[in-house]
Amino acid sequence: MNYDILFFSAHPDDAEFGTGGTLLKLSRKYKTVNVVLTHGEAGTFGSPKVREREATAAARFAGASIEFLDFKDNHVEDTVENALKLAAVIRKYKPRMIFAPYHTNNSTHYDGVAHPDHIALGRLAVKAARFAKFRNAKIRGEAHQAQKIIYYMVPRYFKPSFIVDVSDAIDDLRKLWQCHKSQLKIADGRIVERLLETRAYTGRLSGVKYAEAFIIEEPLNIDIEGIMDI
User: Fold this and answer.
1) Calpha distance 56→79 (Å, rounded)
2) How far apart are the C-alpha atoms of 219 and 34, rounded to whole Å?
3) Domain harbouring 106, CATH code
4) What would the pLDDT profile of 173-187 be if each residue is shown by its tens digit?
5) Residue 130's domain spans which residues?
6) What is the pLDDT of residue 174?
7) pTM of this prediction exceeds 0.85
8) Cα 228–219–64 angle (5° rounding)?
9) Helix or strand or coil: residue 49?
10) Nearest-CA neighbor of 19 among 161, 169, 222?
11) Is the residue at 42 inside a domain?
């Protein structure tokens, strides 16, 4: 399978809550898959079956494919064995771009973005992308090298590499979040308000209403015509 975009999510709502506006914009233009490592079974709200059903509905609304892996919630660990599992996933979908949670976050335990599973997944994604391109590595599938790894769930104390204006997608973004009905109870029922606040804050960094932030660690190659769009 040849996909344009692969999102790695530690939990069933990560891509939608973490970068849903960008997910919507990409999945309606490019072939996109959301690979979810766990069923969120350790979460406060929703059973694994409910959360899988909600995530599947969200993917359908966004126009993306979805796959669930067999990792355990709260036990996503940065190991070679786990990186090899994700490398096999990369070889399966052959994405041009990989999105993953950012691999470093020193925020307090109150910050949901700083969940240890998110941090571990970000580190695993780097290793997996590297392993996937080695032809002689004992990994299922043909060797494949993704062009870029783009990190979402950027800590507020980091300056993002770039942002995506999602102001025109905010109505659909609200509908996307509604697919995760069990999770709307988070933060005493204020999760949507908090998600909008985060995007409003990011938007103010570049003068738009709502935006989502990203970090990319490789230099961006921009031609002279495109430089005026930066």
Assistant:
1) 28
2) 25
3) 3.40.50.10320
4) 999 999 999 999 988
5) 5-218
6) 97
7) yes
8) 85
9) helix
10) 169
11) yes
- What's residue 218's pLDDT? 87
Separation CA 57–CA 219 (nearest Å) = 36
On whether residue 225 sits in a domain, the answer given is no
CA–CA separation, 221 vs 37, rounded Å? Answer: 31
How confident is residue 128, by pLDDT bands cut at 50, 70 and 90?
A: very high
Residues 6+ apart with CB under 8 A from 105: 111, 113, 114, 118, 119, 153, 155
Residue 229 located in a structural domain: no
Sheet of strand 5-9, all strands in order from the earlier edge strand to the far edge: 65-68, 32-36, 5-9, 97-101, 148-152, 211-216, 162-165
How many Å apart are CA 230 and CA 228, to the nearest integer? Answer: 6
Phi first, then psi, for residue 123 (nearest 5°) are -70, -35
What is the maximal distance between C-alpha atoms in the chain?
51
Domain total in the chain: 1
User: Is the torsion defined by CA of 68, 73, 77, 78 positive or negative?
Assistant: positive
> What is the C-alpha to C-alpha distance for residues 36 and 21, in angstroms, rounded to an integer?
18
Write down the residue that tokens 């003068």 correspond to. 207
Distance between CA atoms of residues 145 and 97, nearest Å = 10
